[in-house]
Amino acid sequence: MARPQIAAAPKHPPASRRREDEPLADVVTWDGELPALGLRNRFGKESWIVQARIDGRNTRRTLGTASSLTREAARQAATAVLDALRAERAETATSPDTTVATFAERWLADCAGQWKPSTLVGHRYGIKGHILPQLGEKPVAALTAEDVADWFAALPRSPGGRNRVLAVLSGMMRHAELLGLRAPGSNPCAGMRRKKSGFTATVLCARDYARLGRALDAREKRAPMLVALIRFLALTGCRRGEATALRWDWIDGPRAALPDAKAGPRSIWLGTPALDLLASLPRTGDLVFGQDDRPVNTASLATLWREIRIEIRMPTLRLHDLRHSFATTAVSAGEPLRTVAGLLGHSDLAITEGYTQLADDTLRRAAASVGKHLNDTLTRKGRQPAKLVKASRPAKPPASSPAIPPHLLREYKRSRLLIPAFCEKYGLDPKLFWKAVKADLARIRKEACK
């Protein structure tokens, strides 16, 4: 977008000392087609400049006077200068002496397309506030597990915050392996024992659900929309934010299609009780759980939930524990873990395994069943023991690797281009190419361990 921008220096002379016909000291008008290109007017003399932000700093180059370069020629010259600056930056970011601070910018630029804007902001905050102060000057290639362990132990954050920052550093080191800055499988964060938080999820059993249902019934007339929201969370296992943002036009039969959730677009599958609940709600706006397009008041919801959990004698119960309980109930009922992952919107099966835990009733039933079988077997002298029939699990589908030609993977390792620029040059999808690069690294690690 073309817009004039006053340079910081030199400053304009005071109005009292400048004539009305005297030109401004320094004005830059940016080009509409190539925003990095600017026409600079300094005391009436016009020249073309190109400006780019490299490693957090503004870099400016002068291309020539306006009388010697046409706008089109200036654009071509500016493009060449920008390409050279990017190549210089890429060479610096992949040299053996590359520091963690320099490589952090390369990592963020290469991988930004994989994350949501809020995730990118969180990564930048973690790098600037907690990684660079202690590790920024260390070479990426020389970073050791001892360095990481000392840094991690000194982090002034909660256990959950420490783990998130460690995951950011680990991601940077994996990317360094992809670019050849570190040997495959040499991630200094690998095997780090993350500090555990003191949090323990609470899972509702049948008696707890019954008490919760009675508490909700008693408050339905006083706060019908808040009670309906809590029931919906319990019946679907969705996140609170997904429910409060739910719109009527996203509901299509037995599912609610969310255009954007924690891990991207997903569906909330609605059983008959959830559908009946939605059918009983008034439509006063676009939001399902709202009034005249105003979402439910989170403070009122927190107050109501605090009152409920004290009444049912579960003072530490969180709304998110309804999601844990939903997953546990589904697994205890015999649903395959992959099915439960689909209901919860998990892209990684390991996340679902972390959410679920078998209820005590299920373990008691299993112990009784196994004990009865063994007792029957022991008391049948001379008879063929009965066989325990193990439920067959569905075969795990073979892992598929993105169809990226191997020669392009080799070319990328030799290239100085960032992933977005490399994909643009060869007409590749950045997300698909990134998956192929990670799959290739996994293959190299596997071969190295043989």
TrEMBL record:
GO molecular function: DNA binding
Amino acid composition bias (Pro residues), ranges on this chain: 395-405
Keyword Ion transport: no
UniProt cross-references to Pfam families, sorted A to Z: Phage_int_SAM_3, Phage_integrase
Region (Disordered): 1-22, 374-406
UniProt keywords, alphabetically: DNA integration, DNA recombination, DNA-binding
Core-binding (CB) domain: residues covered: 98-177
Domain (Tyr recombinase) ranges: 194-368
Listed name of the protein: Site-specific recombinase XerD
